[in-house]
Design goal:
By secondary structure, the protein is mainly alpha-helical. It is 76% helix and 0% strand. It contains six helices and no strands. The longest helix has 27 residues. The two termini are 33 Å apart.
Length: 153
C-alpha cells in the first residue's frame, strides 16, 4: 500500500468517524423549517406526484427522493448517505491539494484533515453544495492541466 493510499484512508476514515458520531448524536427529526419543505417535496417526487408550488431548486429534493426510494423515508439514512458524500469530499480536497503541490504531501494531508474535521453539515442541504463545489474545482483543475499538456506537446 502506498503512502498516498494510506493518507486517503486516514482522511476518509477521520471524516467518516467524526461525521457518524455527529449524525448519531442527533435526534431523528428535521431541525429546520426548510428541511420540512424539502422533505415534503422529496416525498412527492419519490411517489411520482407533482413537486407542488414551491420555489425550490429540485436538486436536493431529488437527492432526498432517491434516498427515500432506496431506504424509505428515513432521516438517519439520508444523513448517513450525506456522511459518505462529505467524507469523499474531504478525500477530494486532499487529492486536489496533492495535485496542486505534488511534492508537498504533508500540505495536502493537512488540507484533507482540515476538511475532514470541519463542522459537519449532514443535517442540512448545504453538504451537497460544498461537495459539488469541491468536485467542480477538481474537474476544472484537471481540464486546465490537460489543456496545458496539449499546448506543451
Amino acid at each position: 500500500m502506498t503512502k498516498i493510499t494510506k493518507y486517503i484512508i486516514v482522511v476518509f476514515g477521520l471524516a467518516l468517524i467524526l461525521r457518524l458520531i455527529f449524525v448519531f448524536s442527533l435526534e431523528d427529526r428535521l431541525y429546520f423549517p426548510d428541511a420540512r419543505r424539502y422533505d415534503a417535496i422529496a416525498q412527492n417526487i419519490s411517489e411520482f406526484r407533482p413537486m407542488g408550488s414551491s420555489f425550490t431548486a429540485p436538486g436536493y429534493p431529488v437527492f432526498l427522493a432517491l434516498v427515500y426510494k432506496i431506504f424509505g423515508r428515513n432521516i438517519t439514512a439520508v444523513r448517513v448517505v450525506q456522511v459518505v458524500i462529505g467524507s469523499l469530499a474531504a478525500v477530494l480536497v486532499f487529492i486536489l491539494a496533492l495535485d496542486i503541490w505534488p511534492k508537498e504531501e504533508r500540505r495536502a494531508l493537512l488540507a484533507g484533515i482540515l476538511t475532514a474535521v470541519y463542522r459537519s453539515e449532514e443535517h442540512t442541504s448545504e453538504l451537497q453544495s460544498h461537495s459539488f463545489i469541491s468536485y467542480a474545482v477538481f474537474c476544472l483543475k484537471k481540464k486546465k492541466d490537460e489543456e496545458n499538456y496539449k499546448k506543451d506537446n
